[in-house]
Model the fold of this input.
Amino acid sequence: MIVEIGSFSLALALALSLAQALLAGVARIRRSVVLAGAGQGAAIGAFAGLVVAFAALMYAFVTSDFSVSNVAANSHTAKPLLYRVAGTWGSHEGSMLLWCLALTGCGAAVAAVGRDLPAGLKTLTISVQGLLGVVFLAYTVFASNPFVRLAQPPIEGRSLNPLLQDPALAFHPPMLYLGYVGMSVVFSFAVAALIEGRVDAAWARWVRPWTLAAWSALTVGITLGAFWAYYELGWGGWWFWDPVENASFMPWLIATALLHSAIVTEKRGAMSGWTVFLALAAFTFSMLGAFLVRSGVLTSVHAFAVDPTRGVLLLAILGVTAGAGFALFAWRAPALKRGGVFAPVSRESALVLNNILLAAATATVLLGTLYPLMREAATGEAISVGPPFFNLTFTPLMAALAILLPAGPLLAWKRADAQGVMQRLWVAALIAAACGLAAFALISPRKAFASVGVAMGAWLVIGALVEIGERTRAFRTSAAESWRRLIGLPRGAWGMTLAHLGLGVFVLGACFETGWKMEAAEALPVGGRLNLGEYHLVLDEVRGLEGPNYDAERGQLRAFKGDKQICAPTPERRLYPTGGQTTSEVAICTLGVNHLYVVLGERRPTTGAPVWLVRAYWNPWALLIFIGPGIMALGGVVSLSDRRLRLAAGRKAEAAA
Done:
């Protein structure tokens, strides 16, 4: 009965989304407050229907209702409760239901909290959001219904992929989808603004918080996915330019460009057409990611489905939705108001260059992701594009962006003094160069590119601190005055500084870990020793272990630096009988910001004492790779909490309308 209620609620949400689109659209044409209110009510009702449907599917997973096809294919009674709950969104059908839940939730949020929006813009945004809901809910109801019953239910389910039975993967998809689908509101704002023919400072100021919220969630989602790949797959890395990783990275890059472009539109009224274009592109790349992981064109542990038929439907949705948005842009963009002029050396110019670099970086990632697919479709020849391509094309663009970034906030609007900015940053440049030279001179082996990366990271971190120092006039006024300025800084300024600081921390970790990583592997008997630079590990024992839905071999090792024991890693090798799959559970010793990473491999057949393949990695500064994006996401949240200017813009825009 619960499942039937969920199925009905899903269909009801589709009907309410259609009502939302129609009522809000007609309300804008007739300028009817009553119809606009009805459209807002329908938006909230559609979200409520999805909440009920999602809860019903979760109930089916928790209670192991194998009469539901989706549950039978992705759950098992022996699976821990957390992973039964996570199984709700661990399949193609469940993930689409989560997508629709986030989509209708965004529409309901605009209806509920957009009180200060201009009435016409709000009504049109809700209407467009309703149309997006209709498209994706129709796909879910008719092509990917998660509530389909089985005529002959099995006694036991087939369980979820063991690699996905992990706490990080339980939280990774919801955060990623909040980011992906959060871009739909930005898309709807852009379409509404194009229809209205009005892209001004108030519009840009309202686009920014939605972009910030989606960008922050996407940052957390990508980081959780990278962390999962780091410690769950057992290959010692955190990023491999996998096409599915790229699918989430591209909308993040576009959203980053949009955040900076919207500042120019808000402050100076310039770049309005480009800002609208980025708003359309951000959700387009999100939909592209949905297509890539659900169409069967990619073979990846991240992929949800291998179903070309449903993939074609998703491609059609992408084509119609994005095509309509960009066609409207091509029609209306020439009529958009042009902003003020600015000098080549100004904050506007720095933000334009920032956008050019981010757009070029997105294009390189898109090319590296899609070219192998297009080549295989055209010639039948399978090729791979991996780290060498991206290191050659993407890295120089990001290096140029890193050089520019600390100077941007110090430049004045309209016309700036480049020499004055460099005078304020020369100490930061000197310290960054010293950090790079020290890394090259003191760390063995000497690596020039890694040392340059360390200098870049230090430049970003110190540049962010200099920016705060300039705002507070540190060392140029009294300590009391600097403190007063510090505590009086708007949260938006703190958020920007945290985001730039977090990027610097990430660059430091990524460059140091990549440049000076060490690894060793050896087949060890009990009592055997594995050397790893100045460290060594001893395998004390390997014993059997019975988990809730798996059998495992757990290795007990001791790690030493010289004669001093520093940790006791316990890696595991697990066998899941239900699917017959084997996974590695790595052991990570955190030593400051460094990681000693240990993997227990398979038992090797020998005539004497048994031996196990043990792999170990020394990943210096690896913790910074995950702390940095966390600081960046925190910066987005802090900026999002600064409501003063946004509400003022809303009131002014409402009065003007």
